[in-house]
Amino acid sequence: MKNIFTLTFTFLALASSSLADPLPSWNEGVNKQAIVSFVERTTTAGSPDYVVPTKRIATFDNDGCLWSEQPIYFQLIFIIDQIKALAPQHPEWKSAEPFASILKGDTKKALSGGKKSLIELAMATHANVTSEEFDQSVRKWLSTARHPKTGRPYNEMVFQPMLELLAYLRANDFKTFIVTGGGIDFVRVFAEETYGIPPEQVVGSSIKTTYEVRDGKPTLVKLPELNFIDDKEGKPVGIHQHIGRRPIFAAGNSDGDFQMLEYTTAGKGARFGLLIHHNDDDREWAYDRDSHIGKLARGLDEAKERNWNIISMKDDWAKIYPAEKK
Amino acid sequence: MKNIFTLTFTFLALASSSLADPLPSWNEGVNKQAIVSFVERTTTAGSPDYVVPTKRIATFDNDGCLWSEQPIYFQLIFIIDQIKALAPQHPEWKSAEPFASILKGDTKKALSGGKKSLIELAMATHANVTSEEFDQSVRKWLSTARHPKTGRPYNEMVFQPMLELLAYLRANDFKTFIVTGGGIDFVRVFAEETYGIPPEQVVGSSIKTTYEVRDGKPTLVKLPELNFIDDKEGKPVGIHQHIGRRPIFAAGNSDGDFQMLEYTTAGKGARFGLLIHHNDDDREWAYDRDSHIGKLARGLDEAKERNWNIISMKDDWAKIYPAEKK
pTM value? Predict the structure, then answer.
């Protein structure tokens, strides 16, 4: 009898796992179908599109692809909050831009200096600390800060359909990587817990680091000097440097991801390029060609000829955030 | 009956796998015992030294640790061979150092200019090519070049005991990385086939790369500009940048690995530092304090107080290269 039970149970478990929808928050349609078909074709032995597991590399942008990015990048909100928290130790900031405007609550003016201002703010909050101190400050911020519109912790503003997609790919022996324009050390703090992506599978922008022994303790110190910008043309470079082989699947949402998708889908064999179109002003935000953040224009223009899939958040996703009731 | 057979077979398989020696080329002794004890303590649930699988990071130097490095680094032999092969396209090299000396077969004189000469030679052979062209040139070289002393292909001059150690760690859910002073793109060409280490788990020195679309084809081009030197203090920096967490196991053979071991073994909990001492002039080479390559002095002096294990190639290893008869 025991054997019959065991067999029956095994059969039911197998049947249910093959019948269960791995992407329950994705509405039925061409995009969901394309994803499932790609995974099945590349993972079925004997299929002309079969790819050996070690080459199943999938890369994901973070801002606007795995979590929201409005009204401004969440890492920029972290920077602003840190400037405010550190201000008592920096009386000189009261009269020095871009810090003065941040302290007056005028982010727009603070950022009017463009890239230079942004880098100055980033260095003041990311450099001259040990890597452990930086981790701690991000961790503390994540546990207390709340998004101005939703009131949610930032790491709960991740996209449920993308969490399912990551898990689905991994269940099919894909190795999932984040390739972000954001800071590599910032994203690493929450990537493993939030996305199931370990630190060694995060590629991102960085400042330089130096190694020294402080009071007998080996320490990594973050320096106020740019190391690498992992955006646009930088994404294929970061992928080459960090992963060392071309992905077969890449997902993004802005023209900052264009080159990553271009590089990925130009490889031989089956390839998948995915762009998320933020077009749901009710549940998230709607923006594309004219947005100051996450601008998507060339991607929309060329997706069709390049055979990339444009995901409509409004139509393709039954749910946006994990906490939402369906 | 079938069930009894199955049970018996399963039992025998389990018994034999737990009895089989995972490190057959390691002689019995304190070092082998220390390795096995470390792996058992860190992977046995309930052990006070237990480490969750995601944190089981092990890093290995390459030159002199996973393969030989005498009479000069193998990548330098590749460089010399490439200079000779490319010479017809560079008539100017006949009268310009360090190229002229290389072409006359006087490596010593060519390298007398120190780091500057070495970088000049490296750039002439590693830069201004696409990443695919570079891969091809390394692959071709590996398949044809033979070591001057052993007559073996270079990728057969790897250490059998270290191959076993890598496999043993991986079988216990360690993630194995190479952290080499050598070129990341050079080592990646053979690391997966030779060591079972995929490209994304290779950390190394690099030159800068740029991304461009050439005749409609996305291409990565290697530039004649240094990006990162993954040696000495650079090793913990490279580990931080690439892996993003501190290893619990590190292996090397020279003072270029000192900081990697220092950083690794300064972490909390169980840690393992391993240094290979090249002291077998019969089967390999014997060198340490005064060697022009793979100098090991501080490591020998401080290993004991730091609780690092010094591996004697002569005494600890029953076999050096895979092809050797035991």
Answer: 0.93
